[in-house]
Amino acid sequence: EAGVTQFPSHSVIEKGQTVTLRCDPISGHDNLYWYRRVMGKEIKFLLHFVKESKQDESGMPNNRFLAERTGGTYSTLKVQPAELEDSGVYFCASSPGASVEAFFGQGTRLTVV
Amino acid sequence: GENVEQHPSTLSVQEGDSAVIKCTYSDSASNYFPWYKQELGKRPQLIIDIRSNVGEKKDQRIAVTLNKTAKHFSLHITETQPEDSAVYFCAALTVPRNKLVFGAGTILRVKS
Q1: What are the percentages of helix, strand and coil residues in chain B, rounded to 5?
Q2: Nearest Cα residue in chain B from A38
């Protein structure tokens, strides 16, 4: 069974540019989460999809971040325009339901210069 | 909202010794507490979890305890080995939003 996959694995962009991160969850997993880890800090929640609906987007830092999950399958997280403080590792995770294991992707390391 | 505190931030132990990592949570409604291990350059992976109706769970050298009254839970690793070296994250699942909130992580170094 394929795991959670994220693309790209690394991205280096200049301040002001746009970047789109993609996450393909495990097939059949209704729950999809986006998290971000800034160097040395906690894995911080960004948002949670149940199928195509945003269940909770309370962790999204500001309106420069836009997440979508068209058709309840893969998800994208767009940052536009990127700022220096957006640098970090963005993780996606999926699970089949609540109170069960969430499987993580390998993360996308975003560096904004 | 839920807040998860994790201590210590770094922990060095001698091979064969035990390691204990502690977490506290703020939302008494949280009912699921997983622990993830992240090795260098790899994705976080679940190593053990506990639900709120259980006080302790064991899996070989690792165990987790939960004190619902005090709102804290701990990870215990016995007979540590060099391959246990990694970053460990605790988390709590808030209800009804089903949001997994993580602690800041503990860097565990096992010295041989």
Answers
A1: 5, 60, 40
A2: B104
